[in-house]
């Protein structure tokens, strides 16, 4: 029996209760981060309200109402898993990826950067920078996914599988309007182009302004679902944007592009 630390009225709190509250708090916060901005958050809040009402009715001894709500919650649990299937998947993926892979990749990125710095820059980053500036100048639409740790194939579909070195000429050629591969996204993994013309999941986020079109929504969508970042060139105005964890940074400068490429490519 763990020792009681303090009491609030009739409630006796021990060390495990504090631990319990802390873990539930962290899990709820992570869940909120995952669902933020999506319609799923509204459903989640609805379910929480239902659950709290059930607890309140039960505590007040209103048996009929609480038993009806209990049935709802019972079915609700199964339907929650179905409704939130993509979010549950992403949540588990995030947990696993964060704990296992990110540590390794952080080290390899750190070491990689040290080697690159010693050699005077990473050629792939320089090639993508030049390609993006050129495409921005000519208002050529482009969408580039840089997968970080997760396997992007689980979410990204279609297009043409490739296994090519990144080069300025290749990136510009793929997105050239006459190219059969220009429509869709280019996927980069471990500094190699693994797919072109890929179809990405489109974000349903209500936080995005109405002016944001499908290309940018697709960039946001894929970063909501897997550990990846996206670089986008707008065909409409030639602006370069960046997407990460479901957030869109619009109209970034060349300096910022260099900084982000250094961090994520
Ligand atoms: N789900 C998707 N996955 C990958 N690429 C997509 C997807 N949806 C749209 N695109 C790309 O975006 C192009 C259409 O972009 P649209 O004009 O709707 O978006 P936008 O965000 O307004 O971009 P822009 O500012 O370049 O016009 C398509 O031709 C296609 O290449």
Please, could you describe this protein's structure?
- The chain crosses the membrane at residues 15-32, 39-57, 63-84.
- One of its GO terms (molecular function) is adenylate cyclase activity.
- Helix content is 54%, strand content 18%.
- The protein has 265 residues and is α+β, with helices and mostly antiparallel strands.
- The termini are far apart.
- Mean pLDDT is 84; it is low at 114-119.
- The site of adenosine-5'-triphosphate has 17 residues, from helix 7.
Order of helices and strands: EEHHHHHEEHEEHEEEH
Multimeric organization: single chain
- The helix fraction, in percent, is 40-55%
The distinct ligands, each listed once, are: adenosine-5'-triphosphate
Q: Quickly give the CATH architecture of one domain.
A: 3-Layer(aba) Sandwich
Number of helical segments with 4 or more residues: 8
In total, how many beta strands?
9
The percentage of residues in β strands lies in 15-25%
Question: Over the alpha carbons, how many angstroms does the gyration radius reach?
Answer: 23 Å
The dominant shape is elongated
- The CATH topology of one domain is YojJ-like (1
Which class of one domain in CATH terms?
Alpha Beta
Main sheet characteristics: 7 strands, mixed
Family: Belongs to the adenylate cyclase family. DacA/CdaA subfamily.
EC number: 2.7.7.85
Catalytic activity: 2 ATP = 3',3'-c-di-AMP + 2 diphosphate
Function: Catalyzes the condensation of 2 ATP molecules into cyclic di-AMP (c-di-AMP), a second messenger used to regulate differing processes in different bacteria.
């Amino acid at each position: 029996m763990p020792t009681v630390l303090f009491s609030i009225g009739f409630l006796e709190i021990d060390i495990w209760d504090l631990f319990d509250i802390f873990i539930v708090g962290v899990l709820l916060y992570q869940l909120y981060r995952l669902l933020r901005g999506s319609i799923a958050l509204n459903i989640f809040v609805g379910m929480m309200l239902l659950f709290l009402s059930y607890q309140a009715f039960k505590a007040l001894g209103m048996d009929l109402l609480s038993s009806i709500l209990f049935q709802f919650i019972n079915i609700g649990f199964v339907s929650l898993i179905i409704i939130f299937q993509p979010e549950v998947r992403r949540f588990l993926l995030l947990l696993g990826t964060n704990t296992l892979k990110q540590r390794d990749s952080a080290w390899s990125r750190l070491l990689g950067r040290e080697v690159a710095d010693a050699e005077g820059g990473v050629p792939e980053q320089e090639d993508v920078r030049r390609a993006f500036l050129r495409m921005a100048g000519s208002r050529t639409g482009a969408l580039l996914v840089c997968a970080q740790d997760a396997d992007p194939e689980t979410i990204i579909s279609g297009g043409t599988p490739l296994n090519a070195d990144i080069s300025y000429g290749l990136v510009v050629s793929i997105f050239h309007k006459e190219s059969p591969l220009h429509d869709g996204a280019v996927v980069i993994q471990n500094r190699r182009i693994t797919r072109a013309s890929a179809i990405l999941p489109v974000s349903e986020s209500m936080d995005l302004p109405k002016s944001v079109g499908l290309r940018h929504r697709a960039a946001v969508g894929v970063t909501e679902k897997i550990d990846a970042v996206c670089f986008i060139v707008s065909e409409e105005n030639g602006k370069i944007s960046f997407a990460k964890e479901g957030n869109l940074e619009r109209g970034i400068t060349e300096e910022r592009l260099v900084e982000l490429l250094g961090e994520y490519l």
